[in-house]
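User: Fold this one for me? It's MFS transporter.
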Amino acid sequence: MSAKTNTAGLAVRRAAAQRLQLVLTGAPFIPFGAADFEDGRERALANRLVTTALRRHGQINKVLDKVLEKGTPKRAGLFEPAIRLGIAQLLFLPELGDHAALHLAVETIKRDRRASRFAKLANAALRNVQRQAESWPLRAQDLVPDWMFARWTKRYGETQALRMAEMVLDQPPLDLVFKKGVLPEQDEAGFAHIAPLLPQSYRLAEREASVADLPAYEDGQWWVQDLSSTLPARLAGPLEGKKVLDLCAAPGGKTAQFCDLGGLVTAVEIEKDRLKRLQENLTRLNFHAKLLEADVTQLDGAGEFDVVLLDAPCSATGTYRRHPEVLWHRKERDFAQRAGLQAEMLDAAAKRVAKDGQLIYCTCSLEPEEGENQIEQFLDRHQEFVLAPVQADDLHGWSAPIDVKGYVRALPCLELPNGCTGGTDGFFAARLQRVA
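Assistant: Here's what I get for MFS transporter.
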């Protein structure tokens, strides 16, 4: 390989810039895997560069506004992702070295056909960032879009909104759900740092192995599921012998919970690939459920169920600790648009609930349009349902995510059970009962 293409570290930076460019145009971030980099150190570095740029996206916006007076050049190839990675490294990854940040960012731009003419501009901007590295006013509220922070402040108060914004910087730990009666062996390699959250839910704060290499994975003794995502299924109570309908079920964490509790589960998913993934997960766990590839709004003839759970498609703003780009891909108008589909799905789900049965609605959204407002409007339309307020006993004594009306509103900065730290995904859940 020629010296021109073999500059140390350039391949990693170029790959990171290309992946970041996809995210900037609206795609989700897909972490680099072994197929991208055989060398685990290069793979880890590429992922670290992109995730740092994404978590610090809003703060980097403020810096770019100062050092690029005319804004980011349009139709400039890898210019924007490369300079963002350079700023991320200069300000937030100083241990990687200023020279590498400057040189490799500019080289990435020079070697891109559409960006090369802006190499001098990038060099000047990055040197400006370097000179002022200690003086940039990096505020927590700038980690999220201004309009989003204003919404959070109005809804949850400024103190809470600032805590939520700060959570953007946290790499979330791994939460596992163990089958009923199975306990992790904490002295076993891989589970040395595991701690209990709620019954069957554990948090693995540190790990060196991949998920598939952790103990008892192949034996199907546990599955990955964030704590907040486990809460809706817990609201169903004892399920032995009861008919359960799990709507929008993939990847299958809640389906697995229902199976583990003895429910007779029918799981519905509209996308063939997601349904296949659901089946693979259930097979590993040795759980059985009837799977349907279908549109939730077109389930005529599906029968009635004792418990119906709808995990509705939503803006997913509650998942920003894992996917920080989601906050920048959303627009305020998106919430109202998604709320219309959610209402349609709720109406369809209601038809499948038997008399005295439960309808559980949930979303991984922090927005009231997709949570509290949605349920209040549903109850106005459906006099045959009433709210069944969630009690602390429903969550094994944990009251922190339960609001005054009896909804579950889990915020990322929620105080966790058993003194655990690391936050949780944002989630909303409501439990309704059919009375007529």
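One thing worth pointing out: The first strand starts at residue 174 and ends at 178.
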